[in-house]
Write a structure and sequence with these properties.
Distance between the termini: 40 Å
Helix content: 40-55%
Radius of gyration: 19 Å
Strand content: 15-25%
Number of strands: 10
Structural class: alpha/beta
Strand order of the largest sheet: 1-2-10-7-8-9
Number of helices: 12
Largest sheet: 6 strands, mixed
Order of helices and strands: EHEHEHEHEHEHEHEHEHHEHH
Length: about 325
């Protein structure tokens, strides 16, 4: 085994994450299902990549100056990534987050030194939505920049230049399909664009949770939602700037129950503690693998660590209250 290359800058620890063959999902799909271990980033999620590129982009455009502040509206993980990058670069951080996200994310942001502003969850059209609130705070704060992860294409650039080439190299130039869910759209669009640049024949699939509108958009051209999901950080009801031009070839809609089944199986059978968005991604990868057939190689994103959701999807009372199945080992306790 080759030892990882030593880094002289802590921000260089972002990216170059491991890729692992997932045994159970591969058997279920009848082909190879590979998971990109984004929980190995310093902030324990894929959002570290976007955070780094967004901050660097603001610096390069001279919008962010020494001692400045980065403001962002987020479900949590992007905020954690921004707080870490900002700390390393000498900036302050203000994070606006819906108050229904996991307690672990809130506690982490406070521990990192970010100023945390909690707002009620509401529709994007509402001026009090967390995205609009974060924009106003940035406009009213001297020396602040608004990260604007949903419509700042530095987000997807992180995946065009980073995640996609990493996957191509790790799979030795043989990858038949890629899928993941969309929150901002940066990951699915950026990886899709990056992989298509290597091989136009790679199938890029959207995996959408219930309650989101993109499945319907890519299936029939209309933004229409169906059902609900408790998954944090994924699900979108509009075409963000990051999603514009995304090379989506096909799409799948995955329920929370199916996603949780794979969260449970990956934990008990393969020792991976993941969040629900990862479980939904894996279920989508299985669907894509079955569509592509035996011998295919499909990759997806293992978005973040399950340790960020101990109060939610790993809490039997929370699961029962949401009408979701409780993992047997939690029920037995």
């Amino acid at each position: 085994m080759t030892a990882p290359v030593p880094q002289r800058n802590t921000l260089d620890l972002i990216g170059n994450t491991p890729l692992v063959l997932l045994k159970g999902p591969s058997e279920a799909a009848g082909c190879e299902i590979w998971g990109k271990c984004e929980f190995a980033n310093p902030g324990a999620s894929v959002k570290d990549r976007a955070a780094l590129f967004i901050v660097r982009d603001a610096e390069e455009r001279s919008e962010l100056k020494p001692g400045g502040t980065v403001v962002e509206g987020t479900a949590g993980n992007t905020g954690i990534g921004i707080a870490l990058v900002a700390n390393a670069r000498g900036y302050k951080t203000v994070i606006v987050m819906p108050d229904n996200q996991s307690k672990e994310k809130m506690d982490t942001l406070r521990a990192l030194g970010a100023q945390l502003v909690l707002v009620p969850p509401t529709k994007f059209a509402d001026p009090n939505h967390f995205v609009h609130t974060s924009r106003r705070i940035a406009e009213e704060t001297e020396g602040a920049v608004w990260a604007n992860q949903f419509d700042n294409v530095a987000n997807r650039k992180a995946h065009i230049e980073g995640t996609a080439p990493e996957l191509w190299e790790q799979l030795e130039g043989r990858i038949d399909g890629f899928t993941c869910a969309a929150g901002t759209g940066g990951t699915i669009a950026g990886v899709g664009m990056g992989l298509k640049a290597f091989d136009e024949n790679v199938t890029i699939a959207l995996t959408d949770p219930h309650g989101a509108a993109l499945y319907s958009y890519y299936a029939c051209g209309e933004l229409a939602a169906e059902g609900t999901s408790v998954a944090e950080g994924i699900g979108q009801g509009r075409i963000t700037a990051n999603l514009e031009g995304a090379p989506i070839d096909t799409q799948f809609r995955i329920s929370d129950e199916e996603g949780l089944e794979w969260v449970g199986r990956l934990l008990k059978e393969e020792g991976l503690c993941l969040g629900l968005s990862s479980g939904i991604n894996v279920a989508g990868a299985i669907a894509l693998g079955r569509k592509l057939g035996s011998g295919a190689r499909v990759a997806t994103i293992l978005c973040d660590t399950g340790f960020r959701y101990l109060s939610t999807i790993y809490n039997p009372d929370w699961l029962a209250d949401k009408g979701l199945p409780v993992f047997p080992w939690l029920r037995d306790q």
